[in-house]
Every structure is written in C-alpha cells, then in structure tokens.
Amino acid sequence: MPLTLLIFVPLLGAAAVLLQSEERSVWISAFIFSLIPLGWSLYLLAVFDPHASGYQFVEHFPWIPQFGISYHLGIDGISLFLILLTTILISLSLLYSGGGDIESRPREFCFLMLLLESALLGTFLALDLFLFYVFWEAMLVPMYFLIGIWGHGRKIYATFKFVLFTMLGSLLMLIAIIYVARAARGSLGYVTFDLPELYKIRLSATEARWLFAGFAIAFAIKVPLWPLHTWLPDAHTEAPTAGSVLLAGVMLKAGAYGFIRFAIPLFPAVAVEAIPVFMALGVIGIIYGALVAMVQPDLKRLIAYSSVSHLGFVTLGIFAFDTQGLEGAIYQMLNHGVSTGALFLLVGMLYLRRHTREIIEFGGLWSSVPIYASVFMVMMLSSIGLPGLNGFVGEFLILLGTYFSRKVAVYGAVTGLILGALYMMWAYERVMWGPLTKAANVTIADLDKREIAVMLPLVGLVLFMGLYPRPLLNRMQPSIDALLVRVKDAQAEVQREQVVASSGFLPESAGATVTADVRGSK
Amino acid sequence: MELGNLASLQAFYPELLLTAATLVIVLIDLLTSDKSWLGEVALISTSGALLLIGVGPLDGGAWLFRRMLVYDSFSIFFRALIALAALVAVWMSIGSQEVRRCEQGEYYSILLASALGMLLMTESANLLMAYLSLEFVSLTSYVLTGILRHNRRSQEAALKYLIYGGVASGTMIYGMSWIFGMAGSLDFMAINRALFATSHIPVLAVFIALVLILSGLGYKVASVPFHMWAPDVYEGAPIPITTFLAVGSKAAGFALMTRFFYPAISHLGPDGNWQPLNQVAWPQLLLVVCIITMTLGNLAALQQQNMKRMLAYSSIAQAGYALMGFVLLSNDGLIAMLVYLFAYYVMDAGAFLVVMIVANLTGSEDISAYRGLAWRRGGALLAISLTIFLLSLTGIPATIGFIGKFYVFAAAIRERFYILAVIGILNSVVSLYYYMRPVKAMFLEQPVDSVSAVTVEYWNYGLMGVLALATIFLGLYPPPIISFASNSLRFFISSS
C-alpha cells in the first residue's frame, strides 16, 4: 500500500500534532511528519519505472459498490513529479513557518497544513472520479482556515471569495462526473466512476461538449484562466506565506493537472475543438497577468499576478497537443511551483523584517542583505526564464510545441515573456538596487540559518532542473505519449466522421455507433 | 397478509411501548414529587421502541388492524428514523436547561405521544388513519412548542403553529373527501384500484383533490408555500423540540406523502419507474414546489442572525433537496430521498445540539455568541463539531451530507432532470455562504469573552461525539446506509 501510506501519514501527523502542547514540539513533530511523505515520494521516484506509460503502484479496492465507486490510486509520469513538488513544498513551508512567520496557534496551523497535504496528494493520486472529487473539495477546507485565521488584511473577504469561486466550479463538475458515470451504463453495461474504465465509453458529440465544459470550468477556475482568475490575487496576497506557497505552488497545478488527467483524455474530441478558445485565453492570461503585475505597488500582489501569466503558458503548452508542448507544460508547472513558491517565501521573509510589502518602502537592499538579494535574483531570473535555469526549459519547450501548431499564439506568448522580464527586473531594481534611502532598511538582518536551509533546496532545484532536465522529461514522456495517442485518435475519428457526413453517406458501422450512442445516453 | 386486531399487535410493539410509557410517565408524575428522573424513563422507553422496530412478521409485509396500518420495509425505515429522532430529542431534553425549567411530566409524556403519532403516520394505509395520525402529531406539537409558559416567543410560536396547522389540515381533509367521493373508499389500495380502473377519470377533480391534500402534507414537511410557520416555531420552541420537529415531523411527513403519492395513486412499472395517474400533473406541480422550496429557503437563510432561525430556513431548503428525490417518479429517486432524510437527521440534529449547548452556556442563540468559540478554553471540540455538521449540511465531501446530495443529484441526472440538478448545485453554493458564517465567527473572529472557560456536560458531549463521528464515518463509508435505504424501498401493496 505505498500510495495509501502517502495519503495517511500526513493525517496521522495531523492527529499527532494535536496531542502536542509545547510550541517547539508542535513544529518539530509536524516537520518530521512532513518528512516521511517526502522521503517516501523520493523512494517512489527511485523505483518508478521510467519506460512504462501506465499507472504504477496501483491500489484498487471497492469502496461504495452500489454506485460503482472504488478506492483507486496510481501514479504515472505526469503525477509523479507533482507529488514530489507537494511533499517538498509542504516540508519547506513548515520549516519556514516555524521561524516566526506564524506567531499564534502553531498547533492548529500545523494540523491544517498536514490535512492539506493529505488532500493535495490524494487529488494527484486518485484514479476514481468520485475519490478525486472528494479530495478536490477536501483541499478547500484547510485552505479556508489557513487564509482566514493566519492571513493578513482583508483575509476573510479573500478566503470567502476563494471558497465560493472554487465551490461553484467544482459543483458543476460534480454534475458532469455523475453524468459520465451514468453514461458508462450505456457503453459498458454498468455504472462506474473508475477513470481507466471511463476512457472506454462513447458519448455523443453534444454530450461530450457539455461534459467537457463542466470539467473545464472547474479546472479553469483553479488554474486560473483569465477571466476566472479574480479570486487569485486576493487569496494569494492575503494568505500567510505558507498558504501562498501552497496555493501557487501546488493548488493551481491541481487545475492544470485536472485538464491533463480528466478533461482532455475523457473528451479528447472536444478538447481538440476547444484548442482556439484555450489558446486565446492562455495568451490573454499571459499578457494580462504581466501587464497588471507591472503596475502593482505591493510585491506579493505582483508575484500573485505573475502566476496568472505563468499559468497561461501552462495552458498554452497543454493545448498545443504535442510532446514538446505537454512536456513543457508539466515542466513549467514544476518550475512555477519552485520559483514562485520561493518568491513568496522571500517576500514573507522581507515582510517579517519590515512589516510591509510596498515596493516604495525598499531600495538598495543589495548592500544591507546580500545573501537575500542574491537568492532573490536567482529566483527572479528563474521566473523570467533565463537559459541555464529551470524556467527556460519549460518555456522553451512550450513555445517550441506551440510553434508547430499555432504560430499566432507564440507571438503573443513571446510578448508576454518580454513583459515578464520587464516587470520582474523592474521590481528587482526598485527593491534591491539604488541607494539605501530608508533608515529601516539599513539595519535589517540577512537570512538566518533556518531561512538558508529553506532556500537552499529550492536554489538547488532551480539549477538542477535548468541544467539537467533529462531525467524528469524521460519519465514524463511515456505517459504524455499515451495521452497524445488518445487525442490524435479522437481527432482522426472526428475528421473521418466529417468526411463521411459530407459525402452524405453513412456506412453501416457508423450507423451502428450512432444508435449505440442513443441507447447509451439513456 | 391481512392481520386481525389481536394478531396485529405482534407488529405493533414499539407503539405499544410508547403508549405505555406515556401513561406511566403521567402516573409517576402524579404520584411522586421528585421528577428529575422522568427524562431517563422516556429515554429508556424510546430506546426500547427503537430496538423493537424490527420485530414483526416480515415476509413482504402485512396489513394491520383491518387495513388501517401497513407493516412493510418502508415503514420500518421511517419508524427507525422517527424513533432515532425521538431518542435524540429526549437525550437533548435531559441536557437542556430550558426544558429543566418546565413541567417534566407533561413534557415527556407529550413528547412520547408525539413520537407515537409520527410512527402511526408512517404506517397509515387509509386516509382516515392518515388524517388522525397527522392531527395527533400536530396537536402534540402545538403543546410542545408552547411548553415554555413564561416565554412569550414560545407562546407566540405555538399560536402561529396552531393557526397555520388548523387551516392546513382542514384543507387536507377537504381534499380527502374529494378523493373519497371519486374512489368510494378511504383505503389506499382501493383508491388505487378505483382510480386506475376507469379510463376517463375526472382529471381536474383529482388534481384539485391532490393539491388540497398536499397543503396538509406540505405543511408537515415545511415546503413552500406552507413553510411560513417554520422559522417562528423553530425559534420559539425549546431546542430539543425544534430538533424533533425538524427531523422527526419532517420525516413522518415525507413517509406519509410517499405512501400516498406512490403506491396509492401511481403504478410501479417493471423498470422501477412509477406511472402517475394519467394526465394528473402532480409531479410537475411538485417539481416547481421543490425548486422554489430550496431556493427560497436558502435565500431567506442568508440574512438570519439567529442560529435557530437560520437552521429553520436551512431545513426548508433541505426539504427541497429531499423533494428532488421525490419528484423523479423512480425507485432510485425514492432511495435517494431516504438516504437524504437519514443524512439530514444526523447532521441537523447535530447542529441543533451544538446550538443548544451554546445556548446553555451563553443564553444566546445569535451568531454573535459564537465569536471566537474555537479559541476559548474547552470550546474547540464544540466548534469543530459544529463545523462538521455545517459542512455536511452544505454537502462538502467526506460527510454524510455529501453522500445524500450526491445520491439525489445522481438520481436526478439519471432521470434526465439536468436543470433540476443544476438548480440544486447553485443552491448548494448559496448555502455555503450562510453555513460558513457561524464557522467564520467561531474560527476567524476573536472571542468576546476569552477569560471564562467553556464547560460542557459529558451527557451532551457524548451525543455530539456520536453524531459528529457518524457524520464523518458514514460520509467516508456509506454502503451500510445505502443498502439499508434500498432494501427499505418495498411497499406492501398486495390487495388480497
């Protein structure tokens, strides 16, 4: 039961944390309990078979047999690295938060963090739509409290907005999930929520379109795609540092992952039809996010908007529907998790020292906190996509993949890249360079040991992923190719049907399919 | 199988036990001066009634008392649900400070009598019996609502309840007389035979009769437009009684409504779908009622400041969700309704229990009294439990409320009621807003009074723990309750 362990160790840790009364022992036990899944996921990475395209370490038990619901977990090359990202970021956030960022109620904080870890891992592991939905919704509850209790400023407004937006999307998805499972009765003869089984069902074009929309809205809110992004700046800005790290680093990825794992393979034909829409939204997101980020006076809000821009790239890569594009998209998801997570941590560290995040309040920090400024520079350059750092690999692959299919989108995306470099460097210049004008900035302390320990693994990842992406890409490729085969098949079938329809003649086999569809939808 | 009067008693033990207990409590009340243990007597008798519910000659079912009552799997489900509701109400009454101040003997004997009436409602197979049991429940409920004699709100609530109830049941019995006029019988099966026998039934007359009957039943389940009494009554009555009315009375209403609208005036097809009487548009009417009920309940709950009132409106909305299962005309939908009602019982009773505990502590039922509850010493468990119940009422996964909603939506989608499912979903989003308000107050706001510790009696903690664990456990592992509900959907309708 390697995967169940991954989900339940954090839950166990959450219970263990509740039993602690001393603040120090709370942090230590929470950190240790977050290290266990981290170590375990590294072990899974080591034993993961890089050549297999299917799910590995599969666990499959009946859960609610009356509905055809099972407890079905598995990992493939797509989810493997997202799981690693989750376990790494949770451990680092806990390590960081213990250093003074969370002053009140550490026990409850750690409890919720571990609960969140369990839900996030479950979301990436679930291969049953019902199980997936349970984890997907369960993420909301700890995040609601994390933002609402330990957040800043208009935290209650932000957390309500976040939950309401996400709920609306996911409930519509619930209807689509139920419909798909019911439709299985027509094709398979029984109701099932099992994802691999549901890949086999046939749906009419209209059905598939509606269902795709149901899934896509939920995922698009989570990603978030423009214009459904409005919850993001509020939630990311007001959340405590650890909350922002997990929101940006992991939770947004759940949306993109949803597209790759559920929406696209379940309804490949519709996904192909929808390419222009998503390409357009992606490009708008890239440029809009960059433009809005540019004018933000608040450093944290700036980074929040940069997420909208980066996730636009991810969308572009996904809907390029070729190996490079999808690899780039997943790679970019990981990059964004690492570098934006790190940037949020850095802003949090600055806030701890100065109790402000206004860019105007800073300037010339390079001379007073050199280590801080250099780490910030690495992350900033990674976020911009400097060759040699991780961001470059992802963005390059996405642009490469998209260039073959949609040249227009690439022009937009490249414009966004330039804007991205512009706002990031401009912000960096205003904060780090120039003369030290504010007296308060002269005396602030540089990174302490704990903070260096938090940042070091992230810097290491940025360099490693930038210089040697092969081991990651190799493991992703078989799963991505399997997905692409599905999409291409569907595309070919749609074209064939169009040809048949335009010739005004239905061969016998196609006619049979149509009637089967009608029966299936009953 | 048709049992005579004496033979019927073997399937009637819970009712007999409750009758005896009612009388015994009255007697004890007259004879002794120390009345503090009457609650325990009531508790023992309701638990006894619960245990006796499965006892009976169950092979398919039986007619009892010359076809006045029917004993079948369906009635067993609802009798169990009502006995559970009575058990919770009695348990809460023992731990309630409000109830300790009123006359113990009257209180418990009437409470048990009311439970008896609800049991009879679920078993009625005859319009006369249906009316009598419904009226029995109503009369006892009026008294229970107004039992806080020195509380003006309680008195006002009882009076409102009485007036609405009188009008509704009067309307209902008028409708019943129409049915009697057309079918020539009060027996559900005889009505069925008479109405389905002729090809040209007076469609309009039957429809009018059904609308009139619905007014009485709709009033019991608190569906629009007969919901007006609920907020005032729920607010004014002592909290254990509010709970009993919210879960027990509603369940009894649904039981009677199902038995009348399904086996009595519809035919079961071979595929598990029900055929309503030709051209009589009651399913369409109820569909509209269902949509308005959930929407109105949720919208009205948005601005409530008092927890009991908020939960009252929420329970109107919850009745709307249960009605979604009712209007689908399929066995699947009815099973979904049963699961939903069971889920509703667990989570709503839990929420009211926490409201009662907080009212015991602070004397207030306003949301402002919950401020910072989670951070007061000893308040964390209360806050966490209430959060679990409210998340369950919203329908967040890993709770029983999610299973209920999921099943109802799944049934609606299966019967191709997509719009209905979407409306239900949108309603859930709206409800999230108000269910989260107490949660926000408890966790995200600072305590008004952080000095004093919160102390809760173990008695109340015990029940709260059981309900909270049941909410989570059945949310994670629902097969037991689903199979219980699907096995219960067997009406005894043989006419021999």
Characteristic key phrases:
heterodimer; A: 522 residues; mainly alpha; two-stranded antiparallel sheet; 23 helices; 2 strands; 78% helix; B: 496 residues; 4 strands; 72% helix; globular
Give a structural overview:
The complex is a heterodimer of chains A (522) and B (496). By secondary structure, chain A is mainly alpha-helical. Chain A contains 23 helices and two strands. Chain A has helices spanning 2-19, 23-47, 77-101, 106-125, 129-138, 140-150, 155-188, 195-198, 205-222, 231-238, 241-266, 268-273, 275-294, 299-320, 323-354, 365-368, 370-384, 390-405, 407-432, 439-442, 449-467, 470-502, 508-520, and strands at residues 56-64, 69-75. Chain A has a two-stranded antiparallel ribbon with strand order 1-2. Chain B is mainly α and 496 residues long. Chain B has a domain at 285-496. Chain B contains 20 helices and four strands. The longest helix of chain B has 32 residues, at 152-183. Chain B is globular. The mean pLDDT of chain B is 90. The chains are: A mainly alpha (522), B mainly alpha (496). The A-B interface holds A 63-67, 105, 133-135, 137-138, 140-141, 144-145, 148-149, 155-156, 159-160, 163-164, 167-168, 171-172, 174-175, 178-179, 181-182 and B 375, 391, 396-398, 402, 406, 409-410, 413-414, 418, 421-422, 425-426, 428-429, 432-433, 436, 440, 443-444, 477-479, 482-483, 486.
List the helices and strands and how they pair.
The complex is a heterodimer of chains A (522) and B (496).
Chain A lengths: L1 H18 L3 H25 L8 E9 L4 E7 L1 H25 L4 H20 L3 H10 L1 H11 L4 H34 L6 H4 L6 H18 L8 H8 L2 H26 L1 H6 L1 H20 L4 H22 L2 H32 L10 H4 L1 H15 L5 H16 L1 H26 L6 H4 L6 H19 L2 H33 L5 H13 L2
Antiparallel strand pairs in A: 1-2
Chain B lengths: L4 H4 L4 H19 L6 H15 L9 E3 L4 E3 L1 H22 L2 H4 L3 H20 L3 H19 L6 H32 L4 H10 L5 H19 L7 H8 L2 H26 L1 E3 L5 E3 L5 H20 L5 H20 L4 H32 L17 H15 L5 H15 L3 H27 L13 H19 L2 H10 L8
Antiparallel strand pairs in B: 1-2, 3-4
Helix pairs in contact in B: 2-3, 2-6, 3-4, 3-6, 4-6, 4-12, 4-15, 4-20, 6-7, 6-12, 7-8, 7-12, 8-9, 8-10, 8-11, 10-12, 11-12, 11-14, 12-14, 12-15, 13-14, 13-18, 14-15, 14-17, 14-18, 15-16, 15-17, 15-19, 15-20, 16-18, 16-19, 17-18, 17-19
